[in-house]
Amino acid sequence: MTKILVVFHSITGNTMELAKAVAEGAREEGVDVVVKRVPETIPEEILEKNPGYRAVKDELKSFEVANPEELEEYDAIIFGSPTRFGVMSSQMKQFIDMTGKLWMGRKLEGKVGAVFTSNEMPHGGKEATLLTMILPLLGHGMIIVGIPPVKELYKAGSYYGATSTGKPREEDLEVARLLGKRVASIAKKLKS
């Protein structure tokens, strides 16, 4: 069976909500989907000062923490990160930076890759984040999947991946599901 990993970083739960929608869309294709989070590097006592984190911390902690070495077990990997100054979070960057051994062994070459992001302001660099998240996937030789020019993009998302500004709206979640379904469909075709 085709196996897909959705791996995300989230503090306030917005990227987590997109991750769940991406996974939901992928499951529509009848594939095995696992959702995990990257390790958090901010100390708990600092996170506890953020009301957004306090509201979702139990749900965030319900997701297993991913290990970079397990990425080779999947046919497709969909990465999700909040936008931090127009780039992915340092937690996601650190996770991807830990894939050097996989890169040296060409373990992700030919696997499907896709990305999604959220941020708190309409023009906070979401597309820049998506594009910079794609670069290491290209370095691994992954096959990048975006979103074709469908009508849903007129309300949400980007060609480069699913997005949201703040808490995801239904339109954002719809595009996230579309991305998951598209990745799953392509991964299934490549596997067969």
Automatic annotation (TrEMBL):
Listed GO MF terms: electron transfer activity; FMN binding; NAD(P)H dehydrogenase (quinone) activity
Coiled coil: none
Occurrences of domain Flavodoxin-like (ranges): 4-184
Domain of life: Archaea
InterPro entries found in the cross-reference section: Flavodoxin/NO_synth, Flavodoxin_CS, Flavoprotein-like_sf, Flavoprotein_WrbA-like
One Gene Ontology cellular component: membrane
SUPFAM superfamilies assigned to the protein according to its UniProt record, in alphabetical order: Flavoproteins (SSF52218)
UniProt similarity note: Belongs to the WrbA family.
Designated name of the protein: Flavoprotein WrbA
Organism per entry: Ferroglobus placidus (strain DSM 10642 / AEDII12DO)
